[in-house]
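FAQ: What does the model actually see?

It sees only this:
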Amino acid sequence: MLLTDISVRALKPTDRQRTYFDDSIGGFGLRVSPGGTKTFVLIHGRSRTRTTLGRLGIISLADARTAAKRILAQKTLGQHQPKTKKFAEAYELFKTEHIAKKKARTQYDYQRVFDLYFLKKLGCDRLQDVAYETVTDITDKLANRPSEQAHALAVARTFLRWCARPPRRYIPHSPLEGLQLRTGTARKRVLENWELAEVWQSARGQGYPHGPIVQLLILTGQRRGEIAGLRRPWINEKDRTITLPDWITKNGVEHVFPYGDMVAFILETLPRRNSTDLLFPSFVSDDRPISGWSKYKKEMTAKIERWVLHDLRRTFGTSLARLKVPPHVVERLLNHKLGSITNQTNGMVSAVAEVYNRHHYMPEMREAATTWESHLASIISQNNALSKVA
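And it is asked to produce this:
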């Protein structure tokens, strides 16, 4: 078939994995899994090598088709293609041959780091000219954000190692070889009740799209990228559940969790677009969720210190524990892998029971979500009353 944006979106999953090949480029197609995941692939060469180009939603049909043409051209040119490459050229190959094989969340994170820190400054430089100091001059400016600095260095180190490995050998060795990354201490910040109420009110005043995301983070305890990437087919309004597919969750496990009245109200007020099923699409593309988190957070008026969005998830889990919600219920709401713990008599689940009880505890999770919404409403109400007195 001829793959178009319309036909690609219209393809439905079947009981087995199927690949629909494009009439315009031999070997280029879209693989649709039984779960509904759609991935662009290219089958090429005498050995019928399968190259994964990326998931639909992370890359567009046009980008995938361009990547397929580039790979086929490289195979055709063979040894006549020069080894010397510019940073941006190597990155384009890295994106299709390495990043595209990662989870959607990881793909987005890699592209974010390259777009923010490296491509604008190093894109036109030859790889041979990129030295240790070239990279660290960029990352040293992130010293006040040690976690982001370490992450940027890790991404650059992975990329340059890839450039040095055969059969590419764009550079004899990575300039970051031997670099030891600093491991930061884990954050322990849990917001006080009044601080949580301040963030809630600030998010309400900020409005769509960032405001509702922050409110949903407070209410559900999920991760930033998971809420930002929400799609309407994942929401069951009748049963009031949200299903996060395995490719968007951090631990690679599908996560089904219930929600209450406050979440339902927020979801109902969000704008609907015919061009995308994303709840929070980017202003740049309807196929991508929003970004620019630091800019949005600076716009918030909450007068509290030293907090980040992930602190809301930690506050959610800690607050539920204070409300006497059993630990295994809290962990399931957070989609943590329980691992090898104790037994049911202590309110925990063994590693074996974890496998067989994956879809259980929905009533307990629903009760916990209701308890949390009631407690949060009380916190917000008390904070509003205190503000009026002041």
